[in-house]
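Continuing from yesterday's entry. The apo prediction looked reasonable, so today I'm repeating it with fe (ii) ion included to see how the binding region is handled. Same sequence as before; SMILES copied from the compound registry.
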Amino acid sequence: MATIQYDRERESRAILLSFVKSIQERDIVTYEHSRRVATYAQRLARYLGWSRCEAYDLALAALVHDLGKTWIANDILNKSEALSKDERRTIERHPAIGAGILLGCDVHPFYVETVLHHHEAWDGSGYPSGLHGEEIPLSARILAVADVYDALTSQRPYRVALSDDAACEYLLQRASINYDPTVVAAFLHLLEIFPNFRLPQLVCALPKINLPG
Ligand SMILES: [Fe+2]
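Holo prediction written out below.
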């Protein structure tokens, strides 16, 4: 990753932090998920040899990776039954929506491309562009591993949280299919050597309350 120029970097960071705040106000579950993903991605990037500054920029991108979801209705995002084709297509628009918002704010392209490609798959079966292997920006490949690990180990409306072992098994099975095998190996290694690597889930979704009338 090229080093981001100082002025633009500062401006981009300020814009991104304002989006992080808006995600926090609108959807605390996505915010907490994004915070954990940012921490995992930052640690992974450092382990893979990125500078402190580069890893911080990746963490910022991770904090807004699901920004596009704030433009998608909660009843689709939180649906516990199987999604229809149309609903799946709607959800799959979130990387492009998020990247479009960032593009409109003229943030550095590093953040835009990381957000845009965080659901690409190593074998080319991902979205939105169907990029293959190293065509996918490394930032997005790191983010994808951090994202799926946290998603699997978190409780979701449609399933319970997986154990650490089950999540690691999933990552191993999906390495070279969905995820960059080098990034998966690095992540599994970090999990193995640091017993407290897994981050706690601090926030639970608020229960839905049906008010009378
Ligand atoms: Fe996402």
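Comparison notes:
- Residues 6-193 form a domain with the Hypothetical protein af1432 fold (CATH 1.10.3210.10).
- The two ends are 55 Å apart (CA to CA).
Will overlay with the apo model tomorrow.
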